[in-house]
Write a structure and sequence with these properties.
By secondary structure, the protein is of the alpha/beta class. It has helices at about 70-75, 85-95, 145-150, 165-180, 200-205, 230-240, 280-295, 295-300, 310-325; strands at about 10-15, 30, 40-45, 45-50, 65-70, 100, 110-120, 125-130, 155, 185, 215-220, 245-250, 255-260, 265.
């Protein structure tokens, strides 16, 4: 879990499953922060990561696993847990000053479990269990529309676009946020085993691309075989007229950024990778934290007048957050 936003209101909208006698309640977690701070509302999936205790072995060879709360939107906002581990996650929320009183518990479906293997270079492979999963069973009638209308930033991923009814709920929530003047932040999270095919994943991820104001993406998958390091390719395939900021992350090499006015690159902070889990989520956490904590920066983003000097500081900070994402760290 990475990315506690300490200076803005943080809300997570998710559907949970708890084994026990808990009553169904609205799926909201509210950051316990001053009301005059910009509000960040996060929409997306929650899951349990079972991570190997040793690296460089297959799932079959794993001697043991360690459980960890996961889900990219949840990581951005120090989100809630789900499933049988819900009460444990409720305690984690409380420890991080997040109001857990609005968690929703779904008794009819289990939540996604992800077993994670770590390669020698620190990169991961996943195996998912989610047939069906509680996070995919959120219905539009369960949305807190008033909350979404208050959001300054509405952040989401792409996993919630895979199956109905969650896909329609995702689109409805985006539409509400957009009409209410929220800035839309998109961090597509590619997990091919969850999609019917690589082409379906590409199509699904790109289906909402032109509606987002801020996009953070790992470049290789989305350029369709073209050179992902060619700025002309990036601008042609990934930039759209209403986009205020496109950030292309390159792992330890840093990131590139694109706006209507300028583009550039911020080098990475060299270190030996141990486990990259949560690094991209922590990067986004740093980015949204900067926007939510600096009202002037937030305003210039809305005006599409993102200043070069300020943007470099923000992206360097985001890179530090990504590098610092280790087990147990709360940024």
């Amino acid at each position: 879990m990475a990315g506690k936003l300490t200076t803005g209101n943080i809300i997570g909208i998710e559907k949970l499953h708890i084994v026990g006698g808990a009553e169904d309640r609205t799926a909201i977690t509210n950051g316990n922060v001053a009301k005059n701070k910009p509000l960040v509302v996060c929409f997306g999936e929650l899951l349990i990561d079972f991570v190997l205790t040793v690296g460089g072995v297959s799932l079959a060879e794993a001697p043991a696993f360690k459980k960890a709360p996961g889900g990219a939107p949840a990581n951005v906002a120090v989100g809630v847990g789900d499933d049988e581990f819900g009460y444990m996650f409720a305690d984690i929320l409380k420890q991080n000053n997040v109001d857990n009183s609005g968690m929703r518990f779904d008794r009819t479906a289990r939540t996604v479990l992800a077993f994670v293997t770590l390669k020698a270079d620190g990169e991961r492979e996943f195996m998912f269990f989610h047939h069906p999963s509680a996070d995919m069973r959120l219905h539009e009638s369960e949305l807190n529309t008033n909350l979404i209308k208050q959001a300054n930033i509405f952040h989401y991923g792409s996993i919630s676009l895979i199956e109905e009814p969650c896909k329609s709920v995702h689109l409805a929530a985006m539409n509400i946020a957009k009409k209410s003047g929220s800035m839309l932040s998109y961090d597509p999270n590619l997990r091919l085993p969850l999609w019917p095919s690589p082409e379906a994943a590409r199509k699904g991820i790109m289906s909402i691309w032109d509606q987002s104001d801020i996009i953070k993406v790992w470049i290789t998958f989305l350029t369709g075989g073209d050179d992902p390091y060619d700025d002309n390719v990036v601008m042609k395939k990934l930039f759209h007229p209403n986009l205020k900021l496109l950030v292309v992350t390159e792992g330890s090499e840093g990131c590139r950024y694109y706006t209507k006015a300028f583009k550039g690159r911020v080098p990475g902070i060299k270190d030996k990778p141990v486990d990259t889990t949560g690094a991209g989520d922590a990067f986004v956490s740093g980015l949204l934290n900067s926007l939510a904590s600096d009202s002037k920066l937030f305003q210039v983003m809305f005006l599409a007048a993102f200043l070069l000097e300020v943007s470099l500081k923000v992206l360097v900070f985001s890179g530090v957050c990504g590098k610092s994402a280790v087990k147990g760290l709360v940024l």
